[in-house]
Every structure is written in C-alpha cells, then in structure tokens.
Amino acid sequence: MTTEHDDLEREGIELELFVQALQRRHGYDFSQYAPASLKRRVLQLVAQLETGTISALTARLLHEPGVLPQLLAGLSVPVSDMFRDPAVFRVLRERVLPVLASYPRINIWQAGCAHGEEVYSLAILLEEAGLYERSQIFATDLSADALLQAREGIYPAREAQQWSRNYQAAGGTRSLADYYSARYDLLKFDRRLRRNVTFAQHNLVSDKVFSETHLVLCRNVLIYFSNPLQDRCLGLFRDSLVRGGFLCLGMRESMDFAPTATDFSALDAALRIYRRNGPLLESHAPR
Ligand SMILES: C[S@@+](CC[C@H](N)C(=O)[O-])C[C@H]1O[C@@H](n2cnc3c(N)ncnc32)[C@H](O)[C@@H]1O
Fold it and tell me: Which pLDDT belongs to residue 1?
C-alpha cells in the first residue's frame, strides 16, 4: 500500500524527469520555475492529455515531437487583461510617458506579453500621448501560440465592459470602442495599433538583452520563477534599459530580495514601477 508521502515523492521524481526531458530533447529549461505552480500546470496537462501519470506525459514528449507546442502552451499561463491594474497604466500615462516624450526615439520591451492585451493598452497610451509614431514596441513571449493570438488582436466581446472600465480608470478620456471593431462575439483591435509593434519569441531563461530600451514591462511573469531566475531577469532588464529607463513589474512581484535591486530606485513602490539608477550618459539623455 502506498502512502500519500510515497505518492508525493514519486510525483516529485517524475516532475524532475519531465523537466530534464524537456530540456535535453527540446532545449526548454523549466528547472528554475517555482516548483509548486509548475507541478500544478504539469498535472493539468496530464489531465488534459489523459496520460494518467507525469511519466506517461514524459514518454509522449520524448516520442511525439508534435506534442511540444501543446505542452508549451499548457506550461505558460497566458492570462491577461487590457489595462490590467489600471492604476499602473495611469502612472505610465501621467508620470512615465511625459519623461519618455523627451527622447527622439522610444524603445519599449514588453516581456511575457501573452495574448497581447497589455501591448494594445500601451499602444493606446502612446497614441493618445502623441508618441506612437516615434515608438517601437518589442513584444515577446516564450509561447509561439500566445504570440500568434497577440498578433491577431482578437478577443472575446464579453471582456468589453470590464476593459472599458479599466481604460477609464487608467485615465482614458475617449471610448475604448474607438480602438476596436466588434463582430458577433469578438472584438478586433485596430491594425494601426500594431504598426510599430514587433512580436517575437524570446525566452527569459536563456535569451539575451534588448539594447537601448527606455521602458520594460514584464508583469506577472517573474512570479512563476525561482528567486535566482528572477534575479537573472532583473539583470537582463537592467542591461536592456538606458540609465533612467523605467521597469514595470507585476503587482505581486517584488525585487526586494534580489541583488540586482540596488541598480534600481522605486518611482512607485506599491505599483512596482522602478527606474534604472546611474547618471544619464550623453547618448541616453533626453533631448
Ligand atoms: C500571466 S502571463 C502575463 C501576461 C501579461 N504580462 C500580464 O501581466 O497580464 C505570463 C506569460 O509569461 C510567459 N512566460 C513564461 N515563461 C517565460 C519565459 N521563460 N520567457 C518568456 N515568457 C515566459 C508565458 O508564456 C505567459 O504568456
């Protein structure tokens, strides 16, 4: 007879082997993700693919290359919202964009953009501030599936009311409906909002920095990572940002534990909006 302790131990071993197989076979390293939430998602995949055990899921991963996109989609959590945490977008609108306005070109990196709701939100802020034309947004995610949807910019119409309230709470003065067309039960965001957006796959575990960035948004992604991996990401963001550049994390994320925190100062600690420290280099200074 097996005890609950035996079951947990076996599942722990199976999870380790699954993570190893994913890395060795396909090069995706999940070894530094927070174990509890990773296990939850792997068990959801076990249920979804009806494999019964994590070991059987690992066998499919090893023997069926075609299953990889489904696994990656299941391991990522692409939930988001337009103007999620409106107070954050209000501060971006009122305190961050006026500083960015002094740069001749504005580079923005949105890491972990999921289905793109925050990308369109930010594009709307830039448009309304008259900054869109000189802005370039790099919107990245690990999941190719999520990026496909982000590019489409099509969302369920049931979100319209909540998103409209978020937009107003973030200081929006028009109607959010000005930016999408509604058809049946879908909303399609205006293509013009993505004319300066580049969507690309980028893995925060293993890929490199973007350079000369003025604003990095990476919200509700680090929460899935272990502390050392979070610190690696903070280092990536620091090295991507010009001095004085802005970093925006998720409301439940913190950099207090991280060695890299000394390279940032809080603009609004409660809303997790920071600036990279250091004297402005001439080439980074606003004109
Ligand atoms: C909860 S969503 C966050 C969406 C949006 N930023 C927000 O706050 O609403 C987390 C996203 O992080 C992405 N992600 C997870 N691991 C990643 C990694 N190693 N590199 C890049 N993106 C990753 C997932 O694919 C998912 O789309």
Answer: 65
Asked whether 78 lines ligand 1 (CB < 6 A), one says: yes
State the Cα torsion 6-34-224-253 to the nearest 10°. 130
Domains of the chain, first to last: 4-75 (no CATH), 86-280 (3.40.50.150)
Counting ligand 1 atoms within 8 A of each CB, the residue from 23, 30, 121, 141 with the most, and so the one to mutate, is 141
At what angle are helices 54-63 and 4-26 packed, to 10 degrees?
Answer: 10
Burial class (CB in 10 A: 0-12, 13-18, 19+), 101: middle
Instruction: Classify burial at 91, counting beta carbons within 10 Å of its beta carbon; exposed 0-12, middle 13-18, buried 19 or more.
Output: buried
State the pTM of this model. Answer: 0.93
Antiparallel, parallel or unpaired: β 135-141 and 197-201: parallel
155 forms beta bridges with 187
CA dist., res. 119 & res. 96, Å (int): 16
Compute the radius of gyration of the chain from its Cα atoms.
20
Q: 136-181, pLDDT tens digit by residue?
A: 999 999 998 899 999 999 999 999 999 999 999 999 999 999 999 9
Query: CA–CA separation, 240 vs 248, rounded Å?
Result: 13
Residues in CB range of 4: below 8 A, 6 or more apart: none
Surface-to-core class of residue 137, CB atoms within 10 Å of its CB (0-12 exposed, 13-18 middle, 19+ buried): buried
- The protein residue whose alpha carbon is closest to atom 10 in ligand 1 is 221
